[in-house]
Amino acid sequence: MINEKKVAVMTRMAAYEAGRGKKDREICSFFRSDYVGFQLLKTWIAVTIAFCILTAIWLLYRIDEITSIFYAMDTDAMLALGKDVLIAYVILCAAYLSASWLIAHVAYGKAHRASVAFDRMLTELDGSEEEEE
User: Fold this and answer.
1) Mean per-residue pLDDT for 22-35?
2) Cα–Cα separations (whole angstroms), residue 75 to 33, 116, 121
3) How far is CA 50 from CA 92, 95, 122, in A?
4) Of the candidates 36, 48, 37, which has an alpha carbon nearest to the alpha carbon of residue 103?
5) CA-CA distance, 34 to 36, in Å (whole number)?
6) Could you write out the three-class secondary structure of the chain?
7) What pTM did the predictor assign?
8) What is the pLDDT of residues 39-98, one digit of tens each?
């Protein structure tokens, strides 16, 4: 006889494995701190590259002002410009790294809960086989 309860559990398990299960297994293969740290590293690299590109575009847009500062050898203006760029970089990194930290923690938590639920379904399926015999 076909046990309808087992079929329902196996259907839910197959749907999970076919859909989100692969990604959840990949996420849960790391420790939480390793996964979050890796996501933060990727975010920091991407933010740094994007900031360099945007800074280069901004510098090209303001090239006449910047060249006049360099030709005048105005060290105070150069230091102020460097300080402004550094402050903008720190603020941008802080914002994106904070968002990335929060998103990575939530994603890991969801993946962990889903894998625990999957393990619970496996245990339920295993236990239902023993009851039948």
Assistant:
1) 88
2) 44, 60, 68
3) 10, 14, 45
4) 36
5) 6
6) CCCHHHHHHHHHHHHHHHHHHHHHHHHHCCCHHHHHHHHHHHHHHHHHHHHHHHHHHHHHHCHHHHHHHHHHCCHHHHHHHHHHHHHHHHHHHHHHHHHHHHHHHHHHHHHHHHHHHHHHHHHHHHHHHHHHC
7) 0.76
8) 999 999 999 999 999 999 999 998 988 888 778 877 888 888 889 999 999 999 999 999
